[in-house]
Amino acid sequence: MGEWTPIDPSDIIDIADKSTVGEIMNNTLKMNRKPLLCLFSCFIFLFVLLLSVNSQAVTAQYVLIDDYAGTTVPGRDWYYSRIGGDRGVMGDGSYSVDLGNGKASVVVNNGWGGVWTSLIHQVSSSSSIDPNKILGEYVQNSYQARITGVRIDLINGSGKLKVEIKDSSNNNVVPSSTFNLTGGAQTITMPLSLSGNIKKLNWLVDGTGKATVDKIWFEIQTPKYANLAEMAFLFSFASLSQCYDPASGLVRDRARWPVQHRAAAQSIGSFALIAAIAADLGYINQATALAIVSKTKAAILKLPKNSHQLNPHFIRYGQIEPGSEWSTIDTAICLITSILACEYVGIDTTGLEARLMAIDWADLSDNHTRSISWGYKENNEKISARIDVFGSESLISALAYASSTGKIAKIEAYDAYPPTFDGSGFNDEMASLLFPPPSRDAWGNDWIEYRKNAYLKQVRYLRGKSSYLGLSACEFPHPWEVPGDKVYQAFGVGGHNNDPNDGSDIVGYTVIAPHYSAMLASSHINDFKKVFGFLVSRGIFSPLNNVESYGIMNNNILKFNELKSSWNLSLQALGISKYLSGEKNFLPFKLIAKNNFLNTGYRRIVFSGNLAPVYLLLLK
Question: Whole-angstrom Cα distance, residue 492 to residue 542?
Fold first, then answer.
């Protein structure tokens, strides 16, 4: 357990980037305990490199269904596979099944026993996947990936192992195969050629016998994507699409939870904007983008709001989630991104603009004399903490405030100036994914220079700690290994709080959030390639896998979190699409120039006067 059989890197990285090639080969050697096998893989890799040195086309071959790392600990059950569906034990007769700590062990004395895995969402949902379109229903056919087989890596076993796929109804076994187990380590493969949607994968020991499974995979076939960034955007969009509920227009906070249990306000508008970008890049068709944007707009206008016209951060069964807040920043992001998306597809934006103007900005800012409050508690009591620290959150809130009131928000005291509060990567880059970063904002800050310095500060901080860039807000790689109240943290290099946090004080290794290198892709493409090339080479970032965070222990064991969080996926997809489009052609930048309401606010937060930025005038 903990070993990772190397997957041929030539199949999943941009081989024109020789620095990325070398780094991944080196990591493949370091992280596997089977050196001869590693060397063989690297020889194959070099052979393909010589044949294809001028090619940038990339493909992927595997989806990791589960490695059974997820472990139930006292007071905290773990139900999920590596593709984010739930999993469980099944059987009849005298049997035992043990899941967790990197393996699944089944012993059958009589009868049968094994493990089931939902292939999307919870098994109780009506969701299913098309095995020939595993990027989801929205992505154009020419970019689609398909399932071609199942692969199971066994540590040991005896007797017979049965593998079966259930159809969308979860009632019928579509294909089924039985394999003889040889008593030692063994890899079995089951070719698949499926035509209908599928819901569940089962494997079981049929009759007296036993099996200990290390990992289970789907073998897949993809087209040759133009480059790693294109592939990563499509994979990110696929995971984000699993968070979207087309019936309601809401977006789950995380794909594995039902939408009615927790929807995330900021992710609803963001998904609409990303759908517009995907259409602009040709990955989904215009009609699909129009349908998504229309449905999400309608959902946003129906969201619950308090007496001060703020939406909740999280929505549960149509109401504010207990313990959540009526959030200024999340309402602002939700409405701004939805306005931009509507601008692209040609839907009227006045209703959304009216919602932004209806916010009680006067109360939030103590009649425009103080920094904007973060919002209101569930009981409508105003939150005393203010958005009074430099960063993307304050700049986005200021855009919403300026667009609505024509005023420049106050950012009090020295905190109006860099750095951010905690040096977390997302707060450095988030605003630059929605509008052009100003060379000078209304408070005198040079965002272009700041972002360069913030990047270099993180590079310097991580030197000797991690080969990969990515200190940002995320969950720990193995949530079950840390206290429940510490699972999610804003990892960063430290800022006004003078408190760097890389996670190592809790888990002993640096926690890397891949979305940060994606947000930087347009300016630091090699850092992006290094992170995402590595993840794809391990088979853990795929059409059905996402990586919320990862870390490498001192013994070179890889740990990662497979969470499909709609917000971090939004940041990830926006950052990659900015690289794919090119900064001057990046759709949000063009749309904010086109929308008079937001453009007016943008000009206010960039200059203290009324002069429009030259960049924005050129876009017009």
Answer: 27
Using CA atoms, how far apart are residues 472 and 458, in angstroms rounded to an integer?
A: 10
H-helix or E-strand spanning residue 112: strand 103-118
The model carries a pTM of: 0.91
63-221 CATH fold: Jelly Rolls (2.60.120)
pLDDT tens per residue, range 395-416: 999 999 999 999 999 988 656 7
Residue spans per domain, the chain:
9-56, 63-221, 228-437+452-605
As to burial, measured by CB atoms within 10 angstroms (0-12 exposed, 13-18 middle, 19+ buried), residue 169 is: exposed
Q: Is 605 helix (H, G, I), strand (E, B) or coil?
A: helix
CB of 265 closer than 8 Å to CB of 311: yes
For residue 542, the cross-strand partners are none
Each residue's pLDDT tens digit, 553-596: 999 999 999 999 999 999 999 999 999 999 999 999 999 999 99
SS3 state at 165 = strand
Provide the greatest CA pair distance for the chain: 81
Which sign does the torsion angle of CA 415, 418, 423, 427 carry? positive
Q: What number of H helices and E strands is found in the chain?
A: 18, 19
**Beta bridge partner(s), residue 182:** 158
Cα(376)–Cα(362) distance, integer angstroms: 14
Residue 143 CB-half CA count within 13 A: 25
Q: How far apart are CA 546 and CA 541, in angstroms?
A: 5
